[in-house]
Design brief:
The protein is built from 9 helices and 8 strands. The chain is an alpha+beta fold and 424 residues long. A hairpin with an 8-residue loop joins strand 3 and strand 4. It is elongated and about 155 Å long. The two termini are 48 Å apart.
């Protein structure tokens, strides 16, 4: 058992040396640069920029050119007073002729176009705020995955330490059994405990690999090792709840929702703008060879007022629908604000609980160490049982794991607080 454990431990160390390790800061940087959700949101921002430019094009003139070659039935008439005057033939339309047309149209006043452009700009600003929210969400996701990997790694190391203790104790028990100092039951009991811990260790290693796989997915490359996070690396500058609430209200998610609410109001204004007239300037130039009787060049400039007086109740329904949409967005904003406030209170409570758990876990670890020391002494003197030693080892393992997990939980809750208040 001892030799096989040493071989496994050496193999583990060798694999760790040859594997790729990553720090939390590096994992964050790689995820922000390559995670697909952030890339998609960057593309969404770009799309909104293009939509804004598309809406701005409605303020620019529209110019069309058409060149055609036409075939028609020739139309003409003769005019004259014979026999004094020879009759003259006048052609209205030739049987074939070219024609060139140039038109220009410019909106001088179009309230819907103004509203649509303003709405596109609001949507672009909302998408930018949402990009910041995605970045912050990704950071927490990476931090959470990283800490979960550290917790899984710590479980493996603690169980390996427990297995090493049991194997050392097993060697002592074998020696004492051979000398006739202990019964076979103690030897068998220790071997069973070693198998039990080995089984837990196998599951812990599988959980560690799964945690690393998920972290690799977020980072975008294979991760085999996670480095320890330094104590005090999570900097929370403010702990006063009122200050945290003010920070929370400036979170990118709420800024994005505020833009959505502004956009909903703009949708109402857009629906109402369809009731207003539009003023258009149009220019027309044409050159045609269809007749020698009329001028070949024609042009015209037009100022037009276009006003849709009635088109059923469609525009009224658009205004109603936009109003309902605005109410929906307003309710969403209120709901998100309330949920974030609950989340803030919850994470502050979690931080307090984790700090208390760490304090108690340290005391528990001291007690477990002392208990194991006493159990070993009693067993070596023949006044204690093997069960007491194994139980004390399990208690020490639990105490170590409890302290380690509580420490990692505190870091995770601190990172969660940064996410809730919108602080990267």
């Amino acid at each position: 058992m001892g030799k096989s454990f040493k071989r496994a431990w050496c193999f583990t160390l060798l694999s760790l040396v040859l594997s790729f390790g990553i720090s939390l800061e590096e994992a964050e940087r790689k995820a922000l640069a390559g995670f697909y959700e952030i890339k998609n949101q960057v593309l969404e921002v770009r799309k909104k920029e293009i939509e804004g430019k598309e809406k701005f094009s409605s303020f620019l003139p529209t110019i069309n050119f058409e060149a055609s070659y036409n075939f028609a039935r020739e139309q003409s008439f003769s005019f004259g007073f014979p026999p004094l005057v020879t009759p003259q033939e006048f052609i209205f339309i030739k049987d074939r002729f070219p024609k060139y047309t140039l038109t220009l149209s410019q909106n001088l006043f179009s309230l819907p176009a103004i509203r649509e452009y303003r709405l596109a700009r609001i949507e672009e600003e909302s998408a930018r705020e949402l990009l910041e929210e995605k970045r912050m969400k990704t950071l927490f996701e990476v931090r959470s995955a990283y800490i979960n990997a550290l917790k899984a790694k710590a479980s493996v190391e603690i169980l390996e330490s427990q297995l090493e203790m049991i194997n050392a104790h097993l060697r002592d028990v074998k020696s004492m059994y051979e000398e006739g100092l202990v019964t076979f039951k103690d030897l068998l009991e220790t071997q069973v405990k070693a198998h039990e811990v080995q089984e837990k260790l196998t599951k812990a290693r599988a959980s560690y690999r799964k945690a690393l796989d998920y972290l690799s997915y977020l980072v975008g490359e294979k991760v085999e090792i996670v480095e320890e996070i330094e104590d005090g690396s999570v900097k929370i500058l403010e702990t006063d709840q009122e200050v945290l609430v003010r920070k929370l209200k400036n979170r990118p998610l709420l800024r994005s929702l505020a833009k959505n609410l502004e956009g909903a109001s703009q949708m109402v204004s857009l629906a109402k703008s369809y009731f207003y007239p539009q003023i258009v300037l149009e220019a027309f130039f044409q050159r045609t060879e269809e007749s020698d009787l009329f001028p070949k060049d024609r042009f015209m400039v037009t100022f037009a007022l276009r006003w849709n007086i009635f088109s059923g109740l469609k525009r009224f329904r658009l205004v109603q629908k936009a109003g309902v949409g605005k109410l929906q967005v307003a309710e969403t904003v209120r709901d998100v604000e309330k949920r974030l406030m609950l989340e803030l209170k919850s994470v502050l409570e979690d931080i307090k609980t984790a700090e208390e758990r760490i304090r108690l876990a340290r005391k528990q670890l001291e007690t477990a160490r002392e208990q194991l020391k006493v159990a070993k002494e009693r067993y070596s003197q023949g006044i204690g049982t093997n069960t007491e030693v194994l139980s004390a080892q399990s208690q020490l393992t639990y105490a170590r794991q409890n302290l380690k997990m509580s420490t990692y939980d505190l870091k995770l809750f601190q990172y969660k607080l940064k996410e809730v208040i919108g602080d990267e």
